[in-house]
Design a protein that fits this description.
It is built from 8 helices and 15 strands. The protein has 286 residues and is of the alpha+beta class. The chain folds into 2 domains: 121 residues, D-amino Acid Aminotransferase, Chain A, domain 1; 156 residues, D-amino Acid Aminotransferase, subunit A, domain 2 (D-amino Acid Aminotransferase, Chain A, domain 2, Alpha-Beta Barrel). The strands form 2 sheets. Strands 7, 8, 9, 10, 11, 12, 13, 14 and 15 form a 9-stranded mixed sheet that branches. It is globular. 41% of the residues are buried. The structure holds 4'-deoxy-4'-aminopyridoxal-5'-phosphate. The site of 4'-deoxy-4'-aminopyridoxal-5'-phosphate has 13 residues, from helix 6 and strand 13.
Length: 286
């Protein structure tokens, strides 16, 4: 059984509880982060905590703990659960003042709820999907307008994954005003010739921590990067495509709405970026 962390305590998962009045439960009033663990160490941890701070501040939520304390909790859970490869989830909600009200509770008297738990994923960096690539479908993006904040409102992304599964695909790319925003839980890229194209940062997409690192490594390796919106038709005509996220790293996309890209196998740019990302981010793992 896993050990999890809830509001200052390490507990067996079956004994960990939060209030039924928690605003995360009643209003999706919460944010989260996911950090991957490879060889027992946290990947891109500084980036994830920086984004957590930004998410909290955009929502006027109190910080539940400082950087060092959060790092200690991550490490203790990795140790307690014997995680070599896997994920650490950190969830923060605005807590509960013991009732239901749209008005935010007073942060002086209501503490945020802080929960962390792990998932063990042996061989996370060596997933079979990375060798074959994944298939995506296009779906309409009907999420709210602040997708740059990493909130726990994951109903539509969850529905998107189910739509993909029903269509015999692995994931969905969301489309707004004719242009791809991002994947249900990842940032989306296409490659045409020697240019990598991915949507520019705005409130329309989550500012992926893996995205930032991958674009930095791509530029350092003299690859051409264009940060702009692209259509699904442009994507279908691309030489290759891929997605990035903390849990999938760089994942090749080999089919979009039934159209195979290139020869239908992972392309050289995606494969190279995956190798570079894994190699470089391991060097700075904590
Ligand atoms: N976009 C969305 C909608 C996501 O849920 C995620 C995964 N957290 C990402 C992009 C990728 O972000 P990151 O690289 O920080 O995991």
């Amino acid at each position: 059984m896993r050990t999890v962390y809830v509001n200052g305590e390490y507990l067996p998962e079956t004994e960990a509880t939060v209030s039924i009045f928690d605003r995360g439960f009643l209003m999706a009033d919460g944010v989260y982060e996911v950090t991957s663990v490879l060889g027992g160490k946290l990947i891109d941890f500084g980036g994830h905590l920086a984004r957590l701070e930004r998410s909290l501040s955009e929502l006027d939520m109190k910080k539940p703990a400082g950087f060092d304390d959060l790092l200690d909790i991550h490490r203790e859970l990795i140790r307690a659960n014997d995680i070599t490869d896997g994920l650490v989830y950190l969830q923060v909600t605005r807590g509960s003042d013991g009732d239901r009200d749209f008005v935010f509770p007073d942060p002086e008297t209501t503490e945020p709820t802080l929960v962390l738990f792990t998932q063990s994923k042996p061989g996370l960096a060596d997933s079979p999907a990375a060798r074959t690539g994944i298939k995506v479908i296009g779906i309409e993006d009907i999420r709210w307008g602040r997708r740059d904040i990493k909130t726990v409102q994951l109903l539509y992304p969850s529905m998107g994954k189910m739509m993909a599964r029903k269509a015999g695909a692995d994931d969905a790319w969301m489309i707004e005003d004719g242009h791809v925003t991002e994947g249900t839980s990842n940032n989306a890229y296409i490659v045409k010739g020697n240019t990598i194209v991915t949507r520019h940062l705005s409130t329309d997409i989550l500012h992926g921590i893996t995205r930032a690192a991958v674009l930095r490594f791509a530029r350092e390796a003299q690859m051409r990067v264009e940060e702009r919106a692209f259509t699904l038709d442009e994507a279908k005509a691309a030489d290759e495509a891929f997605v990035t996220s903390a849990s999938a790293f760089v994942m090749p996309v080999v089919e979009i709405d039934g159209t195979a890209l290139g020869d239908g196998t992972p392309g050289p740019v995606a494969r190279r970026l995956r190798d570079i990302y894994l190699e470089e981010s391991l060097k700075s793992a904590v």
